[in-house]
Amino acid sequence: MAHPKRKTSKARRDRRRSQNFKLSMPGIVECPQCHEVKLAHRVCKRCGHYKGKEVVSNDN
């Protein structure tokens, strides 16, 4: 079996492995109530609605 002629440096090894750990874009959707962009499956920070119901009151 073949074996490496030289030691692979940590930088070269980590550069090669970094392709496996790329971050993906989070799911960003539009809120159906206020039409503000928000993260999917989370309460809207602007209006406090989730799944058509107000779960957080925004009384300022």
TrEMBL record:
One of its GO terms (cellular component) is large ribosomal subunit. Keywords: Ribonucleoprotein, Ribosomal protein. Residues 1-19 have a biased composition (Basic residues). One of its GO terms (biological process) is translation. It holds the Pfam family Ribosomal_L32p. Residues 1-21 are annotated as: Disordered. The keyword Oxidoreductase does not apply. Belongs to the bacterial ribosomal protein bL32 family. This is Large ribosomal subunit protein bL32.
